[in-house]
Design goal:
By secondary structure, the protein is of the alpha+beta class. The protein is 20% helix and 13% strand. A three-stranded antiparallel sheet has the order 3-4-5, with no helix packed on it. The protein has a two-stranded antiparallel sheet with strand order 1-2. A two-stranded antiparallel ribbon has the order 6-7. The structure holds zinc ion (7 copies). One zinc ion is lined by residues 37, 39, 43, 48-50, 57, 61, 63, 68. InterPro entries: Tesmin/TSO1-like_CXC (IPR033467).
Amino acid sequence: MAPKRAAVDTEPGTSGKAPAKPTPKRKKPSPPKAPKCGCRGDCRSSKCGCGKKGEACGDACKCIGCRNPFKILKEFNIDCVEAAQDKCLMDNIFKIEDLRGRLEQSHELQCCETSVQVLFPGVVTCPDDDCGCEWQYSWCSNDFVDEENRPRNHCGICRHCGDYRDAHCERCNKCYFAGLSGFECPCKDRPPKPKGGMGSLGLMLWAMQHFAGDDSDRLSDESEDEGFF
Ligand SMILES: [Zn+2]
Ligand SMILES: [Zn+2]
Ligand SMILES: [Zn+2]
Ligand SMILES: [Zn+2]
Ligand SMILES: [Zn+2]
Ligand SMILES: [Zn+2]
Ligand SMILES: [Zn+2]
């Protein structure tokens, strides 16, 4: 005699049944926060909260005639999150009049005269099989730069692409040509620029060092340039 119970237990369909009701989940797979900015205008400026974060505007935004540039990137299926990490893009994106045009434009790579679009973001490898040169688009110069030999060098402080041998000087807060060996900024020989609140003090100290012992009457001659000594 087969025990009835066993038969019941193994009845097909009783186990692994789809739940009638979705059990209330404690943890939702938290969806990415919907973008939202406080703009009442067209989001064309870098003050737009969405654009600042590298997001296209969403339903929660109250903007009118939105021209958030990330909306355009999205139309081009560009990864906005990745794009927003590119300082060169971020420092330019709100200034570019015709972003669509930029993205559609073709550029001839200097290595093989092959044309590429602003495939973005990141480094583009020349499509020529035998070449493989790497190029990176500079939004500042609107051109591709040779990433291997003369890598793009965007300064996030000056907000501009400079020569690949340029370096930013903390002291004068400017980029200067540092060469491949990385020599010091020529500003070390010049009086420090007033910067923040300490500027005038720094300048005074510098003047004291350089003109110490100098008769202040003699300073009023015409050579007010750097021709001291
Ligand atoms: Zn906005
Ligand atoms: Zn928005
Ligand atoms: Zn908007
Ligand atoms: Zn090539
Ligand atoms: Zn740049
Ligand atoms: Zn300097
Ligand atoms: Zn700089």
